[in-house]
Each structure stands twice: as structure tokens, then as C-alpha cells.
Amino acid sequence: MSNRLLRRLVLGLATAAGLLGAGAAGAVTAPILVVEVDSGKVIYAQGATDPWFPASITKLMTAYVALDMVRQGKVSLDTLITISPAAAAEPPSKMGFRPGTQLTLDNALKIIMVKSANDVAWAIGENLGGSVEGFAALMNETAARIGMRESRWTNPNGLPDARQWTSARDMAVLGRALIRDFPDNRALFSISAIQFGKSIMANHNGLLGRYAGADGMKTGFICSGGFNVVASATRNGRRLITIVMGQPSARERDLKASDLFDYGFGQSAGWTAQTIDSLPASAISEPPDLRPYICDKRKALPVDEGPGPIASQAGSENASILAAAAPVGSALAFATLNNGSLKGRALPPRAPLQPILVWIGRDPAEGAIALNEQAEAEKAERAAKIAEARKTKLEAANAKREASRLAKPAANGKGAVPATASAYAPLETTPVIAGGTKSSAKAEAGKKPAAKAATKPAHKAPEKPAAKAADKSTAKPAAKSAKSAAKASGTGKTSAARSAED
Q1: Which residue out of 94, 115, 116, 258 is catalytically annotated?
Q2: pLDDT tier at 311, thresholds 50, 70, 90
Q3: Whether residue 259 is found in the same domain as residue 190
Q4: b/e string for 233-253 if b means 16 or more Cβ within 10 A?
Q5: Annotated catalytic residue within 56, 167, 316, 341
Q6: End of a domain among 362, 388, 420?
Q7: Is there a single domain that holds both residue 267 and residue 381?
Q8: What is the CATH number of the domain that holds 136?
């Protein structure tokens, strides 16, 4: 078997495995597109016009509307954007600015491109459009004007909304428009990191600084849409845009995008190649919901927090096979390669970050003052919370002591058992009932053997002589009385006298 046939066989097996994997996930085809920027010609397309939830790649549309307003003179990059309570309440990813905080539009755009801050993007929409709804209307109007066909926008940050979707084709149209219409702002989409105060935040785009020639643009992730990226790269003066959507992780998204770039740079779009404007409309009426496949409740929620320094291993074997086995312009099922083909692979470690300074206020000095004021305010708030907690704790302790004090009289009342009561009382404390018999007293003493043993030496010895003396002193007068009575009556001893003698 020739090497050419072997490569084709490997490719066919990988493609079949990928299609089976797609079938397991409800036959969902993840949108993928590779386009030449200058000509707009398609190098590879898969599901390119299918509707899809955009997530934070929405912020590319937000940036286009803002830059277009700057170009028209309606605002400037120095225009101050104010964070409203609604903007501050947006969920992460966010900067966490307090309501009332102001920053320039220039810094706001840098922040949403690198940090993907939802609170700042929301504030841009409110300030430039009058409201989020007004800005969404500007987004839809602008999208139609530049040739986007499948997109519908309702918010400027891409947080989940069932009414907001786009397509890989529309994002390619948008990416080309940003590069074409705002050449002076191209660096906005390739910032590796920003520095705010002492914090340095890296770009979420895992291709920047890791893939040779990568120079933009934006990533996004929500559970319903998976991990998305609109990426651009340049080699030998030729620039490509690659769109990858619906991936299960940021790592797989970045690896597939890098392989697609390798494949695209190895191909030359012929004069017969279709353009993004000629891509056919999708047969799908609404975007699929990938939440059951991407955000499994049994696992930790995946996040798109930017790439770390991952160890490098293999290169781009998949792209090499495709380039060698395929004729120019062939429509290969390249992007359906199953996730198993990516196992053990990683992009090279990231190049050192080159942070761009951003600040709040009109300039860095004003920003430093504002940060100090915020720090002092936060410190005062923390101190107030600690004092309030201590006060609450002290009041609770006082209330507990007062309740205990009030409960004591009730415990010592009628029928209550004293706390020092014992089941065995000493003999000395046992009351003797007046008029009780000697036997009953002994019976009472017999019930407490321990007390009896302790008191026996002190009472037994003097008790018997006293009893005999009492008997004799009582008996003798009684006998004498009987005898004298008998003599007086002139009779002998009577039964009473005998009884007394006895």
C-alpha cells in the first residue's frame, strides 16, 4: 500500500470517528470556517451558516459599533463610560467596578477584548446606545449594513439569551470588516495582557503567543454554545481568519484552530473557490443547545479563563495528513476529527506577556486617586461590618445572660429540685416524726446503712444504761404502791401487785 493510500485511509477512519462522535451528541455539527481575509474566499467550511449562540465573541460586534461611532465623530476614545448599578450586577467574567466608576472608552474596549468583562461591555452599551436595547438596535443595524445575514443581537456582552445568535460566516464577515475598516485599531485585538493596578490579566485567546503568526481576535464560552473562537493569523503577508464553535473545552478549541490554520496556510484558494457571500443558507432554524453535553452537572463547570503554560508535545500531524492527501480546494471533513485525535497534544508554552496599562478615570493619575479612594471606602466598609458583627454578638450574649437570670427564680420555685439535691440524704438530716415508735425509728435508720454505721459508736453505748435506769425507777414506786395498798385492805397480794412485780 502506497503512502498516499495509507494517508487517505487514516483520514477516512478519523473522519468516520468524528461523525460518530457528532451523532452521539444529537447529530450536531460544530460550525467551522477558514477564510482568506483579503479575498474573502473560503478555504474550508462546515456548518458555516448554521445559527449558533455566540457567547463573548459578541464583544467583537460591540467593538465594531463603538469604533464606528468614533469614526463618525459621535464619541471619542476619551469619552467616559460610567458603570451603572445594572452593569455592576452583571455576572462574571467581570472587573467588579463599583457603580459610578468611570473609565475611557479606549480602556473599556481594551478590557473587554482581553478580560472579556461583562460589566464593562454592558456599560459601553448603556452609555453609547442610551440603553442596552438601544445599543442592540445599533448592533443589528450595523450587522445588516456590513453584510451579516444570520445574526440577531440583544445584548452587548454575549451572556445567554435565547434570542441572540450568529453564524461562523457572519463572524468571518465581522472579522474582515474590523481589519478592513479600522486599520489603526488592529492592535486592540492582539493585546496579550492588561494591567490594572497590581493585577495582570492575560488574554483568553489561547493562540496568542503560542501559535506562530496568531494576531487576534476573541474567544467566548457559554454552556449552550460551547467554546468558540474567532482567530486571525498572518504568515508571509497572507492573513487568514478561522472560526471554531461548539467545542467541549478551551484546549480542544485552540488545538483545532491551530490545525485549521496549518491546513489553511498550506492551501491556496483558487479562482473557482467560493466566497463567504456565496455560502448557502442553513437548513437549521435555530441554534442547538449544547448545555447537556458541555456543562455536565456531575463535573465542575468549565471556564474560559485563558491559557496557561501547557507543556508542548506533538505538532500538527492532522494538518500534514490533510495537506498531503487532498487536492487543492477539496472539501474534507477535517474538523470532524474526534477528540481522541487530540489526546496528548498541546500547543507550546506561551510567550512572556506584555501587559498594557489600563485605568479608571481620565488618566493614570486620576485613576490612582480613584483607586485609593475606593480602597479606603472598602476598608471602612470592612471595619463597619466587623463592628456590626461584634455588636450583634455582644447583644446576643447579653440577651442570653438576661434570659438565664430570669430563669433562676422559676427553677427555685415550688416543686423544683435544688441543683445540689442528692438521692441519698445523711442520717442527721432525716426528720423524726413526733410520737413515732422506737421500731419505726430503727426502720428509718435501717434504710440508710452507711449513715447508721457512721453514727453507731456515738449513740449506742449511752442508750442502754439510760433505758434500764428508766425501767427500774418506774417499776419500784409502782411495786411499793401495790404492797401498801394490799396491807391497807387486809388482803394478800393482788393480781395488780403481782403484775407490778412481774
Answers
A1: 116
A2: very low
A3: yes
A4: beeeeebbbbbbbbbbbbbbb
A5: 56
A6: 362
A7: no
A8: 3.40.710.10
Tell whether 245 and 141 lie within a shared domain: yes
Structural domain including 102 reads: 3-362
Residue 15 shares a structural domain with residue 56: yes
Least confident interval from 131-140, 212-221, 229-238, 399-408: 399-408
258 has catalytic annotation: no
- Annotated active-site residue 116? The verdict is yes
Q: Are 388 and 265 within one domain?
A: no
The reply to whether 340 falls in a domain is yes
Q: Dihedral sign for Cα 328, 334, 335, 341, please.
A: negative
Q: Taking all residues of the chain, what is their mean pLDDT, rounded to a whole number?
A: 78
Q: Are residues 272 and 381 in the same domain?
A: no
* pLDDT higher than threshold 50 for residue 412: yes
For residue 172, being part of any structural domain is answered with: yes
State mean pLDDT over 312-340: 37
Question: pLDDT at position 371, please?
Answer: 85
Q: Which of 95-104, 280-289, 296-305, 331-340 has the lowest mean pLDDT?
A: 331-340
pLDDT band at residue 96 using 50, 70 and 90 as cut-offs: very high
Nearest Cα residue to 224 out of 302, 113, 305, 115: 302
pLDDT > 90 in the chain, percent: 57
pTM exceeds cut of 0.85 = no
Half-sphere exposure of 106 (CA within 13 A, CB side): 15
Tell me how far apart the alpha carbons of residues 193 and 321 are, in angstroms, rounded to a whole number.
35
Q: Do 96 and 234 share a domain, yes or no?
A: yes
On whether residue 473 sits in a domain, the answer given is no
Q: Tell me which of 41, 59, 110, 256 is the catalytic residue.
A: 59
**Closest alpha carbon to 143 in 213, 25, 210, 63:** 63
Residues 373, 377: Cα–Cα separation, whole Å? 6
**What gap in Å lies between CA 365 and CA 359, rounded to an integer?**
9
Residue 218 marked ligand-binding: yes
Please state the domain count of the chain.
2
Do 274 and 385 share a structural domain? no
Q: Cell numbers 412485780 label which residue?
A: 501
The string of pLDDT tens digits covering residues 435-479 is 555 444 444 444 544 444 444 444 444 445 444 444 544 445 444
C-alpha to C-alpha distance for 6 and 60, rounded to whole angstroms: 42
User: What span, in angstroms and rounded, lies between the C-alpha atoms of 490 and 282?
Assistant: 154
Domain edge (last residue) among 350, 385, 401: 401
What is the rounded CA–CA span in Å between residue 337 and residue 318?
A: 9
- Dihedrals φ, ψ of 474, to 5°? -85, -40
Q: Quick one: DSSP state of residue 357?
A: E
In a domain, 496, yes or no: no
